[in-house]
Write a structure and sequence with these properties.
The protein has 160 residues and is of the alpha+beta class. Helices cover 44% and strands 16% of the residues. Strand 1 and strand 2 form a beta hairpin.
Amino acid sequence: MKKPIFAALLAAQLLTVATPALAVEENNVSNGLTAAGAPLGLHGVDPVAFITLGNRIDGAAKFTAVHDGVAYYFTSQENLDAFRANPGRFTPQNGGYCTFGVSVGKKFDGDPRYAAVVDGKLYVFLNEDILKAFQKDQAGTIKKAATNWKSIRSVAAADL
């Protein structure tokens, strides 16, 4: 008799804990948690190296910072320190979602293999074709994405 009650209580408790994370998808993250207790952002690529060197380099778990509920990996203590000093400078735009997708009101995966740094800001895209489409009108796409992001930021991807 106690097992069904305990199971029901546990399920209800898990739903209340998980619901806020599922209801708001403000950042594009991997499934699961890192050792830091937060999901991994930018597919583990070091955002500081990406912006400062213009090169996609995988970070390491031993250099991890959590910002806005997202764990980011870095290639060095120096990059980790730079991020901690100014995370807003290095986090990907539009929560790490595909900027072109956001420009049309959608939240698609932002894959750092298809990215651009424009005016010191990191923009990621779904795939090579979408990146090429972005390159035809960077300013227009960025402007549309910035406008749309304000209204879709806290909306679940499945609801768009």
